[in-house]
């Protein structure tokens, strides 16, 4: 069974390896055990070495996904290959 905390890095690495220059990779999760910083760290560490990737800012989530003052459940990271 696939598990985010164990398998996400391999999935990101494989997807980024076939991403065309200028392409975007969006990783999102509602996994409650991780905050946005942990998700971003795992994604950054899994990106292939020797290729340039830039973080792309995302708009803040709508209130449909979180209430003001509460930790967001939905987290996302967007990167663009160089």
What does this structure look like?
- With 82 residues, the protein is of the alpha+beta class.
- The chain has one domain.
- It has helices spanning 4-17, 36-46; strands at residues 24-29, 53-55, 75-81.
- A three-stranded antiparallel sheet has the order 1-3-2, with helices on one face.
- The longest helix has 14 residues, at 4-17.
- The relative contact order is 0.28.
- The mean pLDDT is 92.
Major sheet description: 3 strands, antiparallel
Helicity, as a percent range: 25-40%
SSE string: HEHEE
Distance between the termini: 33 Å
Number of strands: 3
Overall number of structural domains: 1
Layout of secondary structure:
Blueprint: H1 4-17, E1 24-29, H2 36-46, E2 53-55, E3 75-81
Antiparallel strand pairs: 1-3, 2-3
Key words describing this protein structure:
2 helices; alpha+beta; 82 residues; 3 strands; 20% strand; three-stranded antiparallel beta sheet
